[in-house]
User: Which sequence fits this backbone?
């Protein structure tokens, strides 16, 4: 186990290999669905919509899918703004792969800009929080919040590790990115939405889900807020068991996203969608 590749060390934790293998089999199966041969763009579009709905639901804006599909104006109240931000992020994630490979921190700033534009004051959009600045966090407020300086230093370290490359599976790298962003909450708001969008970028760029058809946000919403917070607390604990349980939680979310897109494929095949 190489100390120069900590992602690979996490991939070797007990149970993680099984989680990774199970997700890989599930993803391969949906990619092999006959609908994907000619209608993959439709599946990708539907996965983006359902992923956005799931991400917003994890922030407390649990709207019916058809309401998200129908609505065009997302201004006027907090829930609508969250749903609108989730939709913008879902559309943006796949466009940032080239920049991500060169500057992950630039992509995170861009994701926050996309999420918070029109919601926060201009000077706070895309900018990490300063010392003493609070965080609007309806979900993970009970998890201890690092200082702005600690958050910045840890993000810089994470970016260096990403740029150095890893032999770890994309699922593990994505789970770590997701967990770190939720633990650090580097921005004044929208951290959950940004963390889930960054996870999606890693899953696409890492080759696990290159067409972005397996929305983990759907699975996270289905697994529920209580389980989400409990899994993050395990990650933040830093114990082998806690980190492995977090990765397993993220893996299960991807698997449930695969199930969702498999249902979409089946509906398209029947002509019902």
Assistant:
């Amino acid at each position: 186990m190489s100390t120069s590749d900590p992602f690979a060390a996490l991939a070797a934790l007990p149970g993680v290999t099984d989680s990774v293998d199970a997700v890989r089999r599930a993803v391969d199966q949906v990619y092999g669905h006959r609908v994907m041969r000619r209608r993959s763009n439709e599946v990708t579009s539907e996965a983006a919509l359902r992923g956005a709905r799931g991400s917003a639901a994890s922030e407390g804006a649990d709207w019916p899918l058809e309401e998200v599909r129908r609505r065009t104006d997302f201004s006027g109240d907090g829930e609508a703004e969250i749903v609108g931000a989730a939709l913008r992020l879902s559309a943006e994630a796949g466009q940032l792969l080239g920049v991500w490979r060169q500057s992950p921190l630039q992509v995170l700033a861009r994701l926050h800009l996309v999420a918070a534009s029109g919601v926060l004051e201009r000077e706070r959009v895309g900018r990490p929080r300063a010392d003493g600045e609070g965080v609007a966090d309806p979900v993970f407020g009970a998890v201890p919040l690092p200082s702005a300086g600690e958050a910045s230093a840890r993000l810089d370290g994470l970016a260096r590790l990403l740029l150095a490359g890893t032999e770890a599976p994309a699922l593990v790298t994505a789970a770590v990115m997701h967990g770190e962003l939720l633990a650090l909450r580097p921005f004044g708001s929208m951290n959950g939405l940004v963390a889930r969008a960054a996870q999606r970028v890693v899953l696409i760029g890492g080759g696990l889900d290159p067409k972005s058809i397996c929305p983990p946000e759907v699975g996270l919403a289905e697994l529920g807020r209580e389980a989400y917070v409990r899994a993050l607390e395990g990650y933040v604990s830093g114990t082998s068991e806690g980190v492995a349980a977090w990765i397993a939680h993220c893996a299960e979310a991807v698997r449930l996203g695969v199930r969702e897109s498999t249902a979409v494929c089946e509906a398209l095949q029947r002509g019902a969608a």
Q: What stands out?
A: The two ends are 47 Å apart (CA to CA). The domain at 6-270 is CATH 1.10.3290.10 (Fic-like fold). The mean pLDDT is 92.
